[in-house]
Amino acid sequence: MLQNMLTVGEQVLILFILIAMGYTCGKTKLINSTVSSGLTNIVMYFVMPCVIINAYQRSYDPTMLKGLLLAFLAAFLCHFVSILLSRLLLHDPDKRRESVYRFAIVFSNAGFMALPLQQAVLGDVGVFYGATYITVYNLLALSYGIYTMSRDRKVLSFRGLMLNPAILSVIVGLIFFFTSFKLPHVIAAPIQYVAALNTPLPMMLIGFYLSNAKLGKVLRDKKSYWTMLLRLVISPLISLGLIMLLGIRGDVMVASLISASAPAAAFTSMFAEKYNCDIDLSVGLVSFTTLLSIITMPVIIGFVQTLG
Fold first, then answer.
1. CATH code of the domain containing 193
2. Range of the domain at 143
3. Residues in the chain with pLDDT < 50?
4. Pairwise CA distance, residues 271 & 142, whole Å
5. C-beta separation of 107 from 264 below 8 A
6. Are 242 and 84 in contact (CB under 8 A)?
7. pLDDT 10s digits, 268-284
8. Phi-psi region at 123: left, alpha or beta (left = phi > 0; alpha = psi -120 to 50)
């Protein structure tokens, strides 16, 4: 287990060096809010779809199909556990704060933080299963997540959900997978080059967010500590127990727990701003869970690898 922890810890440390670069860029004004907004859009609309499509560029394999279905099941299970915990254990008279707490517990940084780590720990197969987790994440974030933040069913849009770039790229990728269709090199090569940006750009963006975070509000708030514990430790471990009860093992289990144990999603802050929730609290939770994950993720993932 110690060797597994050290291996994962090394990969997490590499990611945090990239985060430190982004932090430096934020403090020195090399990146400002306008630049970060543009880079975020590039990651969401180009980089992540390319990562997902590239992950599905493989010949159809019944074994991989079984793993894909199990990955979908594990992803839904992880989110269900987090939703249940957030509803049962986190309440606040200020609904603007309660929404942020609950969203941060349910939704992990499955794209920005987990995919690079899945690539490092498991290779392309990790990204293959990680893309599956992101599909479930997006389906729930753009439905249940929006409702949690807005507290208004009227803002939900089925059309907006289905036109999300991550969802569309998974649909395209699955068609390629089931038909064993390979893109010509002149198209596949640019997709691979853009997909390679998935590690440095998101990590530097997280560093930029950290450079502007007001962390004092989180440090003075007891419910923030409870939220972070649920997000980083309790929810992943309960999810692990249920996944094992279902007999899911190997790469699917490891990839799913990498996503489930990741820090609070960057969407926490984006949605808090859009739906008039507590923005400072959201940025603090995202920042602090990201910092703490350098300790929690290697321990949890190293433990999971010994079981798988």
1. 1.20.1530.20
2. 2-307
3. none
4. 10
5. yes
6. no
7. 887 887 788 888 888 88
8. left
